[in-house]
Design brief:
Radius of gyration of chain B: 14 Å
Distance between the termini of chain A: 33 Å
Largest interface: A-B, 26 and 25 residues
Mean pLDDT of chain B: 90
Helix content of chain A: under 10%
Mean pLDDT of chain A: 91
Low-confidence stretches of chain A: none
Largest sheet of chain B: 6 strands, mixed
Strand content of chain B: over 45%
Oligomer: heterodimer
Largest sheet of chain A: 7 strands, mixed
Number of helices of chain A: 0
């Protein structure tokens, strides 16, 4: 499978625990995005990388959230001291930013439940 | 006011009906207009895109952009139960906006096509 992959697909954790999600983008894609989606809502932008550089972070991304893309390939999203309000689907997408359409290809998401 | 407005529905139609989905937007810099389809518990997938104004047809799907009214539409002809999903509009600025061509998303419209 050469699409975007995310791991784990589901995560259940207790409030206050730390969690880390991984995203493997399509190999030649230079941009990688993290979104959060709750039921009945469109994806909410969290942050994006161009190669290894994190170019933008949403105001939604509190200090408890951190993302990395150390070698410009896979990325991790860590949430520290999880809260019940963090329960959501976390989506990763990648794109190849060129001259035309910046089409984003999405992974299947990681569904986080904070008890 | 949000940059992109989309009626979340839900929309319920009988099989074979023509479905019309719409989004309005406020940013005149938007040049790329996309429709993503999202099945339950899956990531969004690109269905159609249009650059600037005009119509684009692909099988049973037609995308329309009216930049003067800042209004985009997706039409589905001869709708099928397999079309039941959430349809998300997304848009971004063109190359003149520089490298930051982040997608701005609508909330998504939930569609159910009943056999």
């Amino acid at each position: 499978d050469t699409g975007v992959s995310q791991d784990p697909r589901h995560k259940i954790t207790k409030r206050g625990q730390n969690v880390t999600f991984r995203c493997d983008p399509i190999s030649e894609h230079n941009r990688l995005y993290w979104y959060r989606q709750t039921l009945g809502q469109g994806p909410e932008f969290l942050t994006y990388f161009q190669n290894e550089a994190q170019l933008e972070k949403s105001r939604l991304l509190s200090d408890r959230f951190s993302a990395e893309r150390p070698k410009g390939s896979f990325s991790t999203l860590e949430i520290q001291r999880t809260e019940q309000g963090d329960s959501a689907m976390y989506l990763c997408a990648s794109s190849l930013l060129g001259q035309g359409l910046n089409e984003q290809f999405f992974g299947p998401g990681t569904r986080l439940t904070v008890l | 006011q949000k940059e992109v407005e989309q009626d979340p529905g839900p929309l319920s139609v009988p099989e074979g009906a023509i479905v019309s989905l719409n989004c309005t937007y406020s940013n005149s810099a938007f040049q790329y207009f996309m429709w993503y389809r999202q099945y339950s518990r899956k990531g969004p997938e690109l269905l159609m895109y249009t650059y600037s104004s005009g119509n684009k047809e692909d099988g049973r799907f037609t995308a329309q952009v009216d930049k003067s009214s800042k209004y985009i539409s997706l039409f589905i002809r001869d709708s099928q139960p397999s079309d039941s999903a959430t349809y998300l509009c997304a848009m971004s600025a063109g190359r003149s906006a520089g490298n930051n061509r982040k997608l701005i998303w609508g909330l998504g419209t939930s569609l159910a096509v009943n056999p």
